[in-house]
Amino acid sequence: MISIKVPPLGESIVEATISRWTKKEGDAVAAGETLVELETDKITVEVPALKGGVLTKRLKNEGDVVKVDEALGELDETAAGATAAPPAPAAAAAPPAAAAPAPAAPSAATAPPAAPAAGEVKASPAAQRVAAEAGRDLGGVSGTGRGGMVTKQDVITAGTGAPAAPAPATERRPVAEAPAVRRPSPDGVRETREKLNTRKRRMAEHLLNAKQATAMLTTFNEIDMTAVNAFRERHKDRIEKETGVRLSAMPFFVKAATLALKAHPIINSQLDGDEIVYHHYVNMGIAVASEAGLVVPNIKDADQMSLLDIARSIVAVAKKARDNKLTMDDLTGGTFTITNGGVFGS
Q1: For residue 208, what are the contacts with CB-CB under 8 A and spacing of at least 6?
Q2: Which of 63, 130, 270, 299 is deepest in the core (most CB within 10 A)?
Q3: Phi-psi region at 295: left, alpha or beta (left = phi > 0; alpha = psi -120 to 50)
Q4: Nearest 5°: phi and psi at 38?
Q5: pLDDT tens string 237-262
């Protein structure tokens, strides 16, 4: 028997939440195939099978909080030859259904779904998974997420024929923002509770800790952006045509910040015990709002980049964040952070 354990999760991260098992007990597993997905406060970690075999036991359930090196399950590598073939069809993508699929929440032990043929449809990873499991084509689903993105709730709602517009408020934040007229859910329940996952719990802890343990200081300065805006108007169309990168205001903020940090290195430093650590480089953190919550990937050595390179890097890390493909390296080592709340009306 091979013990399936929680792998190292990165700097200062000691626990994670089991978000999804991709295999059920008795399933054949190939070497390198993902067995279970763990969610930390920063990223989703896939735990692969080190060797081929059969998953004989799952010791933890979805939603359980587990620590580094804790056993998640057991794999029998000696059963690989005898039982690898029969379970194969269960792991394959489901064929198109003849009738409309029944709406269902994702199964706790389904095999990894095949990527849906969604064409140009923008859909979150969760929406893609639910659509694949239900055999639904995302092309016919209207997205209510930011920028028209199809969400998990959009896919579920499309299967029931219910109106899509109010669904996100009911599914995801039933009591966070009360509407003018309080409408109970279809089954008459006024409130529902959802257990905080590791990521959201850590975000809450970090925000509270920052307020309690940090000397908070806010300053306001007005900056004349006339020259920057004129520069953007002159060059943004040409730059987008030549490089595919939209020249927003954010790269200018990042470039200005890197110059300021070089001029005032004390701001680009940190305390470590009774020492000040000066960073002679700038790894610029960019706060990005994703479906999983707020994440802050950082652009390594931003002070060495041109304005266009910074613009490309911002687009790249933002896309990785929204596609849930950030790595631990993307999220560690930052020396300064910029948050732009303008997309939310700030």
Answers
A1: none
A2: 130
A3: beta
A4: -115, 140
A5: 999 999 888 888 899 999 999 999 99
Residue type, 151: T
Asked if 59 and 75 touch (Cβ cutoff 8 Å), the reply is: no
Q: Are 202 and 39 in contact (CB under 8 A)?
A: no
Strand 298-299 vs strand 284-286: parallel, antiparallel, or unpaired?
antiparallel
Query: Which ranges of the chain does DSSP label H, i.e. alpha helix?
Result: 80-83, 88-91, 125-134, 152-160, 167-172, 198-213, 226-243, 250-263, 307-322, 328-331
Residue 286, classed as helix, strand or coil, is: strand
β-pairing verdict for 2-5 and 71-76: antiparallel
The token pair at 136 is 């639904």
CA dihedral 179, 183, 184, 190 (to 10 degrees): 30
The Cα–Cα gap between 310 and 314 comes to 6
pLDDT at 168 over 70: no
User: Has residue 80 got a pLDDT over 70?
Assistant: no
Does residue 161 come out as left (phi exceeding 0), alpha (psi in the -120 to 50 range) or beta? left
Which strands make up the sheet holding 28-29, listed edge to edge? 2-5, 71-76, 53-58, 28-29
Tell me the pTM: 0.49
Burial of 121 (0-12, 13-18, 19+ CB in 10 A): buried
| Tokens 């408020």, residue located | 169
